[in-house]
Amino acid sequence: MKTERIILGIDPGTTVMGFGIIQVIGNELKLILMDELILSKYDSHSLRLKKIFERTLHLIDEFHPDELAIEAPFYGKNVQSMLKLGRAQGVAMAAGLYREVPITEYLPKKVKMAITGNGNASKEQVAAMLKRLLNLTVLPTKLDATDGLAVAVCHYFNKGQNGGTKKYSSWKSFVKNNPKRIK
Questions:
Q1: pTM surpassing 0.90?
Q2: How many CB atoms are located within 10 Å of the residue 96 CB?
Q3: 147 classed as catalytic
Q4: Bigger pLDDT: 168 or 155?
Q5: 39-43 long-range CB contacts below 8 Å, 24 or more apart?
Q6: Known catalytic residue at 61
């Protein structure tokens, strides 16, 4: 008997949020959707966060993913960018938790390693490997969509176990794993 599941992968961002949805039947992967949410057209950071939440909820309600995989923020030199990225990730996670979809975070290097075998691979290398893995005929011009897809495929390769940095299945599990973030 073949098992079937749907995985939503998200590459959060405050100017562009990339996402990909795959269907897994047994050991076969099938692309359902790969796209991006363009947020740069909105001046307000709060409005951008609202749009991320709404789009994530819409994707969950339309495609009914069994799991949500999301890229964890990476540590950079610009603290303001890091804060904004963390908010974008948090809002997407909140939408998943609101719909009770289990969430797993993956570090960017882990995603690149899972897709290409090289944790320092470029976005172009990740996209090219996804094209081969999923037998895609074309790739989007912007690579945020393939980054979101890569997170979903990384989750598939890790079978949702031990590959992610953190897993949340509910608000209760989030609170349990983040006691210092709750006031």
A1: no
A2: 24
A3: no
A4: 155
A5: 39/13, 39/14, 39/15, 40/15, 40/16
A6: no
**In the numeric block, which tokens belong to residue 91?**
């809002």
Q: Which two tokens stand for residue 168?
A: 């949340």
Strand pairing class (103-106; 67-71): parallel
Backbone angles phi, psi at 40, to 5 degrees: -65, -20
Of residues 36, 67, 71, 147, which has the active-site annotation? 71
Assess whether 144 carries a catalytic annotation: yes
Q: Exposure string (b/e) for 134-171, b if CB count within 10 Å is 16 or more?
A: eebeebeeebbbbbbbbbbbbbbbbebeebbeebbeee
Q: Which of 36, 67, 105, 144 is catalytic?
A: 144
The pLDDT assigned to 176 comes to 65
Q: Of residues 11, 36, 105, 147, which has the active-site annotation?
A: 11
Beta bridge partners of 11: 18
User: What is the greatest pairwise CA distance in the chain?
Assistant: 50
Domains delineated in the chain = 4-173 (3.30.420.10)
Q: What is the DSSP string of 44-103?
A: -HHHHHHHHHHHHHHHHHHH--SEEEEEPPPP-S-HHHHHHHHHHHHHHHHHHHHTT--E
